[in-house]
Amino acid sequence: MAKPSPVSPLAPTHVPAMPAIAGVRLGTAAAGIRYKGRTDVLLAVMDKGTTAAGVFTTSKCPSAPVEWCRAVLKGGKAQALVVNSGNANAFTGKTGKTSTKLTGDIAAKAVGCKPNEIFLASTGVIGEPLDASKFNCVLDKLNETATPDGWLDAAKAIMTTDTFPKVATAKVKLGKATVTINGMAKGAGMIAPDMATMLSFVFTDAPISAAALQALLKAGVADSFNAVTIDGDTSTSDTLLMFATGAAAAQGAPKITKASDVRLKAFVKALQGILNDLAEQVARDGEGARKLVEVVVEGATTKASARKIAMSIANSPLVKTAIAGEDANWGRVVMAVGKAGEPANRDKLSISFNGIRVAKSGARDPSYDETEVSNAMKNDKVQIKVALGLGKGRDRVLTCDLTKEYVAINGDYRS
Amino acid sequence: MAKPSPVSPLAPTHVPAMPAIAGVRLGTAAAGIRYKGRTDVLLAVMDKGTTAAGVFTTSKCPSAPVEWCRAVLKGGKAQALVVNSGNANAFTGKTGKTSTKLTGDIAAKAVGCKPNEIFLASTGVIGEPLDASKFNCVLDKLNETATPDGWLDAAKAIMTTDTFPKVATAKVKLGKATVTINGMAKGAGMIAPDMATMLSFVFTDAPISAAALQALLKAGVADSFNAVTIDGDTSTSDTLLMFATGAAAAQGAPKITKASDVRLKAFVKALQGILNDLAEQVARDGEGARKLVEVVVEGATTKASARKIAMSIANSPLVKTAIAGEDANWGRVVMAVGKAGEPANRDKLSISFNGIRVAKSGARDPSYDETEVSNAMKNDKVQIKVALGLGKGRDRVLTCDLTKEYVAINGDYRS
Q1: Which class is A24-284 in CATH?
Q2: Whole-angstrom distance, CA of residue A264 vs CA of residue A266
Q3: Please, are residues B52 and B107 in contact by the beta-carbon 8 Å criterion?
Q4: What is the pLDDT of residue A106?
């Protein structure tokens, strides 16, 4: 194991106070799954009638908990979420499936519901069997002691190589009631199956049907978690779940059955804000990251084309090492545009770093001041903007720089 | 600029003696394009009647010399090749085009041929105008002094961040004559537009028509240069050219007009050997590389599917940092298989490192010995073999590990 890293210099300076969500109780415990001296299990207990939605990794080799969640999601109902860190229960064959079934049974018994109302997520080492019997007494006890508070503790219990817990919250009007949305995430470098994976859980007391919740979540993920990359490596375990207890109906919140319901306008905006916030925090905790990088591509033929080009730039090791070196190396950006395979015309291309245009019309911009650019690159947030000059397609992707620390975190820990 | 790196520990221990090729003369010079105290221009002069073939980068933002070569290749005839290092003449707008035209004119005048029989390649910094007037006296003089020897000098003149020159040679029967094939390449980390790009030039005295030569080269590149990746970043300048002087016809070599001609059997094999050899040398000189990595995927549904999965593994920063850490981290290989998007069944998957199977049937192989694997990973060549168990598709890709030196070479040089 790597030595624990110091907190990322890009960590948010303000951590919001997390309010309670009516119908949700949280408990954490140290079950000794892999780590010592820290919590590694989270139980979230939700009131009867809670609806559920989820989006998952596109990996062709997903973890056992991902397969479990996909199956139970068909029911659309949730009464508990069990998350463990330290072991991803991925690539564990039949043992993995047995393990999720046992965990589901233990949790269902503890909470008093059916196993298909239990959601599971695991993060940590891959390929190691997960001994689900460790949950046996733990979940019983957690169900008894779980409280509406403790959101930050919950976010800490699900961390792996994360250097800080990630939470976000919002209150918003739904009808005449005020509803709350709380979210948490873990992921540092994402996407590192031996060390980390992206998990995120969002809770609300708004009364929203499972189908509507699923549509909202799917729409919300496109420009948040799906627009973040640390190293281009996709986890076997990426999981984003959302739960709606409906408790706000007692305060007069209308029951929502369609994602297109106009009364959801403020809610949708707040949810998007939380997903964006958590996704940015994941980029800010990228393994070894010293700079947050925002890649903006505009003037593409379509938004999808802009996304593909932005991802090509954000995943380029040469672009990312240049940012680490505080070098406004637009040649490498051209390279990454060129390799994306999307429509691009060299002679119409402009590139800016933190608002300073360094290249235009297929050549170096003769007017830029090297010292000004060098100073701008010292900022801990770097925006790379590429204007293609072809159409109206625009997109934005977040990433971080590629440092020697990334190599150390992912390459040194066996030595 | 980075400090010159010491020679890669993966450099071949044997450098072949390079024979002359009838109809080819070589000359190198120090034109002061960017570097000091070293040669940076290569002129290869070829006899009238030489045929030409070429394959180029798939980048949508190719360099000016790539666009020049694509245009002149239509004629299929070559009398000279001019290569410079230190400046890639890429993303230089109209200036770049003017520069290639001027270089072509200067070379054509020096050699005594038409500009559309001149091939150009440039490698080095991107975005800087290339002052072609520097070739003015140089090419005249080089044409006068060029000799059939000096292949290693030629390979040195085209280097950028390469730590060793890359050459390969073969002699083979064509009809009753013995023909020669000589090749050279440059590229270290490939694919780094500010520092390096992949260039390769192959010469033969075999009498082969331009159309047949093009078909041979295109077929030969698929499993050699197209099966190598250092960092997944595609250069704006990748260029592979092949020239056939036809001089061996005087020794009785048959004139070949079709790539499918059965008399070419030995020639095709030898050409493939040279392209494979040069491509492997590029991987061995990968920026910061300490280990050569061969990724073999078998049991895929098709060869193309196997290639895609092998490339996903070979380009994964997490797999590459694990190899740098001498860690047989098969969890990351599973991740890379999963993210490739190709047919894969976790429960049928087996993974070996240097012949030692560490995972089978969707779980850790209980029989492997951790000490044995750890020792195997200390080797400077690591083979990752993935058996998918789905079909007969098989492919192989070469890459290298991702080390802190890679980050230093590409991130530190401005500091």
Answers
A1: alpha beta
A2: 6
A3: no
A4: 97
Helix (H) or strand (E) holding A157: helix A151-157
Predicted confidence at residue B189, as pLDDT, reads 59
Q: pLDDT category, B414, cuts 50, 70, 90?
A: very low
Smallest Cβ–Cβ distance between A363 and the set B93, B318, B413 belongs to: B93
Chain B neighbors of A326, CB-CB under 8 A: 414-415
CA distance A9 to A6: 8
Structure tokens that stand for B69 in this block: 């070569």
This prediction has a pTM of 0.86
State which amino acid sits at residue A13: T
Which residues in chain A (234-253) have CB-CB distances under 8 A to chain B? 234-236
**Residue environment code for B115-149, b if the CB has 16+ CB neighbours within 10 A, otherwise e:** bbbbbbbbbbbbbbebebebbeebbbebbeebeee
Please answer yes or no on whether A317 and B231 come within 8 Å at the CB atom: yes
Helix or strand (DSSP H, E) at A385:
strand A381-387
Residue owning tokens 């007692």 = A250
A93 at interface of B, judged by CB pairs closer than 8 A: yes
Q: What mean pLDDT value characterizes chain A?
A: 91
Answer whether A91 sits within 8 Å of B342, measured CB to CB.
no
* Buried/exposed code over A241-254 (b: 16+ C-beta within 10 A; e: otherwise): bbbbbbbbbeeebb
Report pLDDT digits (tens) over A171-224: 999 999 999 999 999 986 544 334 446 889 999 999 999 999 999 999 999 888
**Residue A342 buriedness (CB in 10 A; 0-12 / 13-18 / 19+):** buried
Q: Does A413 touch chain B (CB under 8 A)?
A: yes
Break chain A into its structural domains and give their ranges. 24-284, 292-411
Whether the Cβ atoms of residue B77 and residue B50 lie closer than 8 Å to each other: yes
CA closest to B412 among chain A residues: A325
Residues A231, B330: C-beta atoms closer than 8 Å? no
Question: What is the distance between the alpha carbons of residues A314 and A252, in angstroms, rounded to a whole number?
Answer: 45
Interface test with chain A among B309, B311, B326, B334, by most A beta carbons within 10 Å: B334
Please, are residues B43 and B136 in contact by the beta-carbon 8 Å criterion?
A: no
Superfamily in which the A292-411 domain is placed by CATH: ArgJ beta chain, C-terminal domain (3.10.20.340)
